[in-house]
Amino acid sequence: GGDGGGSKKSAASAAASRVKRAPNAFIIWAMKYRQKIAEENPKLTNGEVSKKLGEEWSALPDSEKKIYFDLAKKAKAEHQRMHPDYK
After folding, report:
1. Nearest to 23 by CA among 74, 82, 59, 86
2. 43: helix, strand or coil
3. Closest Cα partner for 59 from 32, 28, 29?
4. How does DSSP classify residue 22?
5. Angle at the Cα of 10 (from 8 to 11), degrees rounded to 5?
6. How far apart are CA 27 and CA 56, in angstroms?
7. Are the beta carbons of 78 and 71 closer than 8 angstroms?
8. Which of 5, 37, 40, 68 sits most deeply, having the most CB atoms within 10 A of its CB?
């Protein structure tokens, strides 16, 4: 059988070619912890998981956040190197 999603595929590839902004510290942290929170709380909707992530990030000590701010700084520098014309 075929994939049956011809028009969807071209829209997806167009979206994939768009340059996204570099992730900030929260996004880097959330990517790491989203699945864990979702698995620990299977009844939560995606929005509720996001809210819980926000609450946990806010409660995180600055000393722990620093790791992710440093990673975000590196990601931003790499993003600027890869996409010098990005806004």
Report:
1. 74
2. coil
3. 29
4. P
5. 65
6. 13
7. no
8. 68
The C-alpha atoms of residue 38 and residue 11 are separated, in whole angstroms, by 29
Beta carbons within 10 angstroms of residue 6's beta carbon: 8
Per-residue pLDDT tens digits for 25-74: 999 999 999 999 999 999 999 999 999 999 999 999 999 999 999 999 99
Dihedral of alpha carbons 49, 55, 57, 60, sign: negative
Rounded to an integer, what distance in angstroms lies between the CA atom of residue 27 and that of residue 25? 6
Which pair of tokens denotes residue 74?
A: 């590196």
Q: Any idea which residue has 């990005």 for tokens?
A: 86
Which amino acid belongs to residue 55? E
Joined together, the tokens standing for residue 14 give 């167009």
- pTM summary value: 0.73
